[in-house]
Amino acid sequence: MGGQNTNPVRNLKKIIRIIFNNSYIKGFIRWKLRLLGKVPSHRIRLFFLKYLYGMKIGKNVVIYGWSELRSPWLISIGAGSIIGDEVKLDGRYGIEIGENVNFSTGVWIWTEQHDVNDPYFAGKRGSVKIGDRCWLSCRVTILPGIQVEEGCVVAAGAVVTKDCDEFGIYGGIPAIRIAERNKNLKYSFSGKHLHFF
Prior knowledge:
With 197 residues, the protein is α/β, with parallel strands linked by helices. 19% of the residues lie in helices and 25% in strands. The chain has helices at 8-20, 23-36, 42-52; strands at residues 56-57, 62-63, 68-70, 75-77, 82-83, 88-90, 95-97, 102-103, 108-109, 112-114, 123-125, 128-130, 135-136, 141-142, 147-148, 153-154, 159-160, 168-171, 176-180.
């Protein structure tokens, strides 16, 4: 039987690769995740994200509704963090969110975008890391490969194109450091949330 692959593990890996590279399967998973964001129960959303999609979610995490999480199996959220409504987390290349982080409404985090100068319009990729006790205000956009260090605040509408140093307050397009934040932060979020959101 020359040339035939009889290794069952190798065959299974090949089948899995074909399934997950199938655009219909990817589209179906993404559609299901968008629907999950509309489920009017915080607890049900967390259950499915954690146990069905393998997302790493710490204690007392709140994820409000109408959010879209892509590749949640590559996203981790530390204890006490709050993800506001209408947030988009593009986990394709990894997102790590620290403890007691607050994302306001409409925060977008991208781990891949197109390179406008590439002759083939190829993607630029990179994981994103958000440190402990950061606050990303309304409509903040974080681009691929960015690290937002501990205690940072990013002002509403800012677009973060470069790393943010710890305890800095950033704003603008592109975001620049505009002030310092108190370094003696002791707060922690309890996980209290509005039901049906």
